[in-house]
Design a protein that fits this description.
60% of the residues lie in helices and 0% in strands. Helix 1 crosses helix 4. By secondary structure, the chain is an all-alpha fold.
Length: 81
């Protein structure tokens, strides 16, 4: 399980790339504003991320924390509680 922000960001980027089929985004780009992103791909990202981390993560997390950087912080915070 990733323990640092940069490790978590790398895992999240991989999940986004898989769901979107490309890596044309930055760590501060809002997910739904990226080419190919929609509510279905958001669900796919969160299912993949939950599987990778072995944790149950709600889809609303990516909607509230829509960048790679913000989502990494939110997931790390959620895991620490």
């Amino acid at each position: 399980m990733p323990t640092t922000r940069s490790e978590m960001q790398a895992v999240i980027r991989e999940c986004w790339e898989q769901a979107l089929g490309h890596a044309d985004f930055g760590d501060d780009d809002a997910f739904l504003l990226i080419h190919g992103a929609n509510s279905l791909t958001a669900v796919q990202v969160m299912v993949a991320l939950s599987g990778r981390l072995g944790a149950r993560l709600p889809v609303r997390l990516i909607m509230r924390h829509s960048t790679v950087r913000a989502l990494a912080d939110a997931v790390l915070e959620q895991e620490s509680t």
